[in-house]
Design goal:
single chain, alpha/beta, Arc Repressor Mutant, subunit A, five-stranded mixed β-sheet, 14 strands, 43% helix
């Protein structure tokens, strides 16, 4: 029986994550025929089809979806082994950017783990929205960033971590139906992050799906303040579902069951392709481990 190779798993993982053979080839700096050959060889070894071909596109088959998490664990394990060799070299400053909603929920356990495992590492943190963090990362003023739906850049590596559950959230003071549509919220005050942010695109796109625009749309650059304004009943907004857990328990807000639903937002680690230092690897691996323990993110591709 033929053995499954790391190269085949990388080809599968990146094709599944990016949903494109061409993009996987660019990510791995290989030709498209090489990726296709590795995928075909992997499917022959497993005796199953990992992708369904739809027109010119592809999507994971049921067997491919079942295998995705196993492939991720294998590749994560390889990265962990590589990083362990450099644990003693993990020291000094590391400049880290984090999307605000993600940081509010996850930064405390991440930082605690870094303090415990890498006591010689000194993180310097920048917390904001992705459009404000990325320019600093591209200018090499940050070493690594954990971002919601970042842009692709040939000089930077994107490492998918999963998808952040995201919902419309409203105070229980609002008399809203059990299933909420854009027509139900159109006349209510809505709040979002500035134009250009994924939050703004989610809000405007949701209303646009019904050919509508909200009558009142306030803008706030802070995810934390946006959530506070929602919690106090001033407006209705979209943000990470776990940010609302305490207020839901207290009966102050509820996650809205909406049609159409709000898609979960993908979270990536992003750093310069030519600057994958022991510090960066340690930081990325630590974030991945903490997120796994928190069971915070849904799997990419689901």
């Amino acid at each position: 029986m033929s053995r499954i190779t790391i190269a085949q798993l990388e080809a599968f993982f990146w094709t599944a994550t990016l949903r494109s053979v061409d993009q996987a080839a660019r990510r791995l700096n290989l030709s498209q025929p090489t990726i296709s050959l590795r995928l075909k060889s992997l499917e022959m070894t497993l005796g199953t089809s990992l992708f369904d071909r739809i027109g010119r596109g592809i999507r994971l088959s049921s067997d491919g979806l079942a295998m995705l998490e196993d492939a991720r664990e294998v590749l994560d394990g390889i990265e962990k082994i590589a990083s362990q060799r450099n644990d003693k070299r993990v020291s000094g400053r590391i400049r880290v950017g984090l999307s605000e909603g993600f940081a509010i929920i996850c930064l405390s356990p991440i930082l605690a783990r870094l303090h415990h495992v890498y006591p010689a590492l000194s993180p310097e943190l920048m917390v904001s929205t992705t459009p404000f963090i990325e320019p600093d990362l591209h200018a090499r003023e940050l070493d690594v960033a954990f971002l919601v739906n970042p842009t692709e850049n040939a000089d930077f590596r994107l490492v998918p971590l999963g998808a952040q559950p995201t919902s419309w959230v409203a105070s229980t003071r609002w008399d809203l139906p059990s299933v909420v549509t854009p027509h139900d919220l159109m006349a209510h005050p809505i709040i979002s992050n500035p134009a250009g942010s994924i939050n703004y695109r989610q809000v405007s796109g949701w209303f646009a799906s019904a050919g509508l625009t909200p009558e009142r749309l306030d803008i706030c650059n802070s995810v934390a303040m946006l959530a506070h304004l929602v919690n106090t009943g001033v407006a209705i907004g979209v943000y990470p579902s776990k940010m609302a857990e305490r207020e839901i328990e207290d009966g102050r807000v509820r996650l809205l069951n909406t049609v159409p639903p709000i898609a979960d937002t993908p979270i990536f680690a992003k750093y310069p392709s030519n600057a994958e230092s022991p510090n960066v690897r340690a930081c990325v691996n630590t974030v991945r481990e903490v997120l796994g323990e928190l069971n915070y993110l849904t799997a990419v591709g689901q």
